[in-house]
Amino acid sequence: MIDRRLITNFDWTLFGIVLVICVVGVVNIYSASASYTIVGTPFFVKQLYWIVAGLLLVVVVCSIDYHLLEDVSYWFYGMLCFLLLVVLVVGKTSMGATRWLHLGFFSIQPSEPMKIVAIMILARFFSNYSTVGGLTLKDLAYPALFIGVPAALIMKQPDLGTAILVILIACSMFAYVGVRLSAFVTCLFAAIPAVYLAWHYYLRDYQKNRILNFLDPERDPLSSGYHIIQSKIAIGSGGVLGKGFMQGTQAQLRFLPEQHTDFAFSVFGEEWGFVGCLVLLLLYLFLIFWGLHIASRCNDRFGSLMAVGVTAMLFWHIVINIGMVIGIFPVVGVPLPLFSYGGTSMITSMVGVAILLNISMRRFMF
Amino acid sequence: MNGHRFIHDNYGSKRQLVFLSIFAAALFFLLLTRLWYLQIVKSDELQSQSESNRLRLVPVAASRGTIFDRNGAVLVTNRPSFSVAVIPQEVRDRDALLERLSRYLEIDRAELLDKWEKGKGRARYYPIVLASGITRDQLEVLEENRLWLPGIEIEMKPVRQYEDGTLAAHLLGYIGEVSEEDLKKDAASGYNSGDYIGKSGIERSWEKLLHGRDGGRQIEVDARGRVLRTISETPPAVGSSLVLTIDAALQKQAEKAFGEQAGAAVAMDVNTGEILAFVSNPGFDPALFAGRMPPDKWKEYLEDKRHPLENKALKGQYPPGSTFKIITALAGLEEGVVDERSSSYCKGAYVLGHNTFRCWEKKGHGTVDLKRALKESCDVYFYQLGEKLGINRIAAYARKFALGAPLGVGLENEKGGLIPDSAWKEKRYGKKWFQGDTLPAAIGQGYVLMTPIQLAAMIGAVANDGTVYRPHLVKRVIDQEGRVVREFKPEVVTRTSISPRSFRLVKEGLLAVVNEGGGTGGQARLYDVRVAGKTGTSQVVKQRDKRGAIPYQYRDHALFVAFAPYDRPEIAVAVVVEHGEHGGAAAAPIAGSILRAYFERKSPVGKPANADSAPPGGEEKGGTGESGQEMTKPAPQGEE
C-alpha cells in the first residue's frame, strides 16, 4: 500500500500547521494548570502523550487508502448507533449526563467517533447520488434520517453540544453538495416548530438555563452565568498584548471554570491578548482553508466530501468553542480542537486530520 | 476500489467550495470582531474587573484614642471584641450550621438567618458577620466545636470599653457602625460600611482625632477567597487621646447625688470655663450601642419617661425661673432703676392691667429691698423692676452673658436657649410685645429658656465679676506617647462690662440665699466654705392647674445655681432637677453635695467637722461679716 509517491506527496503544510497548534496548546495547558495541585502526571505532559498517540494514529490511518472507508461506513454506522443505544441503557453517568461506555479495561464515548462516521456515511451516500440544480427535499430525506437517529440519541444523553455539532456538520455537507433554494427555505421554516418543541419537551432545565444565561449573563451572576462573565473578564483584561505567559490573574487564581479544557482559549486570550488571539485564529483559518483546498483538488467525490465533512467538523468546534468563551454562544461543552486538554477530543481531531492527510496524499492516485 | 469518478461532473462543487470558504471566513471575522470589542474597546473596564476580582482591600481599623479625666484616670479605652462570620460558599448544610450556631450563641435562628440573607449579593467568599460582641465563654465553645462549623470564621476587632459603665454617658457618647445615610454625606468620607464612627458626645465631636487613620492591606485572593499574599500595606495610625476637663470623682459624686431623679448638672471652673462635671441623669450604657443592644433594654430606654437618652445638660432648654432674677437685678442696678436702698411692697401679688401676677409667697413679703428680694426670691419685687426696665433692656443684659445662643462647648447640637425681646415676638408670632409678657420674663418664666450649660456659664460670670468663659470639656489632646499635641487655654466669650459694684450687691443677695435665715437655698450650705447661690422653680404648667397630686410630667422643674467660695470663687454649679418641684428642696442639696465633693477633694484634711462645734463660715477666708454670724441652722425651705 505504501507507495513512494505517497511519501513525496505527503502534505507537510497541513501536518506542520497541526503541530504548531498542538504545541501552542500544550504551552497554554502548562500555564492554565500551573495553579493546580496535581497528583501524578501533569496535564501538559498527558496532553503530549495524547498528541504522540494521535500522531501514531495519523501514521496508521494514512497507510490505509481512504477509499476503504467507503466500504465499511455502513457497518461503522450501524455499530455506533447500537452503542449509543447501549450507552443510554447501561452507560456511566457523570455530571448528570450518560456518555461513557465501559468496556472492561477502557471506556469509550460513542458520540465522539459518531462525528467521523456521520461524515463517512454522508460522503458515501452523496458520492453515489447525482443531482442537477441542487438537492430537493426528497433528496434530503434519507441523509436527514441517517443523521437524525444518532443526533436524537446523543441529545438524549444529554449532550446538546455534540448533537448540534453532528447536525451542523451534516448541514455543511449538504451545502457543499448544493441545496435548492426551495428546500432550504422549507427546512428553515420547519426548524422553527422543531426548536419550539425541543425547548418544551426535550431540553433539560440546566440546558435551558445555560441558554438563558447566555442571553442574559447577569441573570445569575454567581452560578452558571458566572462562567461566561469570568471568561469575558479574562479575555478582555488581556488587552492588546496580553498579561504575559503565566501572568494571567484570572487563570492563575482560578477564576475561570474548566480552564485547561473548554475554557483554554480564555487563558490564552488573557495571557497573549488580541495579538495572540489573532495569530491563533489565523492558524485555524488557514487550517480550514487548507482543508477546503484538499477537498477541491481531490479527484473523487467520496474523498472530496470526506474532506469537506472533516473540515466542517474542525470548523464548527472552533467557532462554537471560541464563540462560547467570548460570550456569543451559549455554554455547551465543546472543546477547542488540538488545543484544549483532553484525550477524546485530541484523538477525534487527529483522526480527522489523518483523513485529510490521507486524501491529500492520494490526490494523484486514481 | 469503487468510486473512481471525477468530482468535476458536479457543476456546483467549485462554486460551493468558494461559498463555504467565504462563510468560514465570515464567521471567523465575527469572532475577531468580538475579540476586538472585548480586548480593545472594553479592555480597561474588564481589566479593572479582573483587578477587583483578585485584589481585596482589607481595612485595618486604627485603635481609637483613649479618653482620660483631668487627673489622668481612664474613662474610655479599647478591648478586643469577637464576632462570628460565615463564608456562605463554604457551607454545605446551612440548616444544620444555623442550628448549631443558634445553640452555641443563644441567638434566635431566625435572627442569624436574617443576617445571612441580608449579607448575600456581596463578592463571593466574602464573610458575612452573623453575630458580634460574643462572650469569651461562647468563643470557647465555638473554638472547641470548630470542626462542626465549616465556613465559620471568628473575627477580632477592638471595641470601646467604658471603665465606669454609665458614668458621664451623655458626655462621652457612644460609637456605632456608620449608617447608610452617613456614608452618603461628606462627613463620613473615608469610611466604609461596617466601620465604627462616633455617634454622640465627645466620641462624635472629636471623631476625627479619636479615630486615627485606618490602615489597610491590599491582598491578592484566589477564586475561593483564599489569601495568597499581601501586595501592599498601610499601617493604621492610632487615634489621639483626649484629656478632659472632667474630674471623674466629682462626676461620680454628682451623679450619685441625683439618685433616681431626672435632670442635669454642670460644674465649671469659674476662672477658666473648664467643665468639671457634666451630668445628665438618668444615664445609659454606651457600650450597648456598639454591640448587640438587647431589645428589651432599648425598649426600656425609649419608654422611660425620664428620657435617659436625652443629653439634658447640653440640649435641655428650661425656663430658668428665679435664677434669672440675677440678670434682672443686674440690669436694674446698672440702669439705675433700683439701688440697694430702694424697696418694693409685696402683698403676695401684683396687678397689671387686667392681669394679676402672683408671688410664690401668697402672704406676701411686705417691704423688700434687693438683697431680701433675692434671698427670699420675692416675685413682686422683680415684677415691678421688670416693668420699669422693659423687656428689651432685660434681654440686652442677658445677652451680655452670651445667653440666647449656643456657647460652643464643643459638642454637637448644643442648644442656645431663648432670650425673648419685642423684635423676637414680632418676628415669631407677628404680635406686639406686651408689658404682661415682660413680668414673667423678669422672673425667668414665659418665653425665657436656658440650658444647664448656660446657667453654669452665667453664674460663673457673676462669680468672677463679668467674664464669660467658654465652657469646654477637653483640656488637651495627647498622642500615643503622651506628648501634648494641643492644649486648650481658657477662652473668653465676652465680658459683661457690668460694674463690680452691681456684682457685689447681687452677690451679697446670693450669699444670703444660702446662708441667711429665710434664704431659699440653705440646703446648699457648707460649713467651711461660703457658698452663694440662687434657687429657681420653673413652671411646667400654669399655677392654677396645680391642685392635689400633680402627675410627674406636670410638676415644676427645680433649679439651683451657685458658686463658691464666696470671696475667691473657684467653682460654679448649675443644677436642674426635672419635675423636682422646688429649687431649694430638690436642686440645692445636689449642688451642695457637688460643692462639698469638690472642696473635700481639694483639701481632704478640711473635711467638715462636727457641724455644731465648727465655727461656721469664714474659717478659711475670714468671712466678710454679716453672713457668717447668721449661719446657724439651715433655713426652712421656702420657694417662690
Task: Describe the fold and architecture.
The complex is a heterodimer of chains A (366) and B (640). Chain A is mainly alpha-helical and 366 residues long. Chain A has 2 domains: 1-64 and 224-307 and 321-366, no CATH class; 68-203. Chain A has helices spanning 4-8, 12-32, 43-63, 67-90, 111-127, 137-155, 160-177, 181-202, 205-215, 224-238, 249-252, 264-297, 301-325, 343-361, and strands spanning 92-94, 97-103, 106-108. A 3-stranded antiparallel β-sheet of chain A has the order 1-2-3, covered by helices on one side. Chain A is globular, with a radius of gyration of 21 Å. The mean pLDDT of chain A is 86. Chain B has 640 residues and is α+β, with helices and mostly antiparallel strands. Chain B folds into 2 domains: 57-242, Penicillin-binding protein 2a (Domain 2); 248-284 and 294-630, Beta-lactamase (3-Layer(aba) Sandwich), CATH 3.40.710.10. Chain B is built from 23 helices and 23 strands. In chain B, the strands form 7 sheets. In chain B, strands 2, 3, 4, 5, 10, 18 and 19 form a 7-stranded mixed β-sheet that branches.
| CATH topology name of the largest domain in chain B | Beta-lactamase
Percent helix of chain A, as a range, is: 55-70%
Number of domains of chain B: 2
Q: What percentage of the residues of chain B does DSSP assign to strands (E)?
A: 15-25%
Q: How many distinct helices of chain B? A: 23
- The total number of structural domains of chain A is 2
Report the β-strand fraction of chain A as a percent range: under 5%
Mean pLDDT score of chain B, rounded?
84
Biggest contact = A-B, 58 and 48 residues
Radius of gyration of chain A: 21 Å
